[in-house]
Write a structure and sequence with these properties.
Elements (H helix, E strand, L loop, with lengths): L1 H28 L30 H5 L4 H12 L39 H4 L7 H9 L1 H4 L13 H12 L20 H32 L1
Helix pairs in contact: 3-7, 5-7
């Protein structure tokens, strides 16, 4: 009984020594601390990196022309309901928490209403309330004019910002609405397409060259 136990124990100890030896040898051969890329790639995997930025928001000109003017103005009237607690747009109307907005489109930023005390964040901004500036203001007032007294968080959808801007434009402003011409389908930039094709061809050539080099190395070592 003792002989069998000693024999079994000996084999277990021998197997452990062999395993430890292989672990040491493999650690030296496949050095984990060596981050260097091999000069010759055995196989090149082509892949496509997906863009996770999400869809691009339409421009203000497109949003202003996304539907008929009357329909957009009606939509804007509904959106303006969120603003009525602080503003009104009646000609000669009193200021509220915010200024009266009659005729505001096209007026100087921070100076459109002479009877209202604007914050320095707006009076020092410069420029006029054109379509693009109004769009950025309505999107996030605090980002457009850091330090503004207006606490409204903003309108996240450009469709809403375009609609309320169009609605305000009917109250004593009447700024011209910018035209929007949609690009024809399939009329992409030919030079860009050609450059992309050349880049793809070059990448395929490099991959083929690397594979050929790898094959030569394998044949030489056979």
């Amino acid at each position: 009984m003792d002989d069998r136990f000693n024999t079994a124990a000996g084999w277990v100890l021998f197997a452990g020594i062999i395993g430890l030896g292989f672990a040491i040898l493999s650690g030296k051969y496949f050095h984990a601390d060596n981050p260097e890329r091999p000069e010759t790639l055995g196989y090149v995997i082509e892949g496509v990196v997906e863009d996770s930025a999400g869809p691009v928001e339409m421009g203000m000109a497109e949003a202003l022309n996304m539907m008929g003017a009357d329909e957009l103005i009606a939509k804007g009237e509904g959106v303006f309901a969120k603003c009525q607690a602080c503003h009104n747009m009646e000609q000669g109307g009193a200021n509220g928490v915010g200024p009266n907005l009659f005729g505001i489109m096209g007026k100087p930023i921070g100076g459109g209403n002479a009877t209202f005390a604007y914050s320095s964040a707006l009076t020092e901004k410069g420029g006029n309330w054109d379509w693009d500036n109004m769009n950025e203001w309505l999107k996030k007032p605090s980002a457009f004019a850091n330090g503004t007294k207006m606490s409204f968080a903003g309108l996240s959808k450009i469709e809403d910002r375009a609609a309320v801007s169009m609605y305000m434009n009917t109250y004593g402003s009447n700024l011209p609405v910018p035209e929007f011409v949609e690009a024809a389908a399939g009329s992409g930039d030919e030079e860009t397409a050609e450059a992309e094709a050349e880049a793809d061809a070059a990448a395929e050539g490099e991959a083929a060259a690397e594979q050929d080099a790898a094959a030569e190395v394998n044949e030489g070592g056979a």
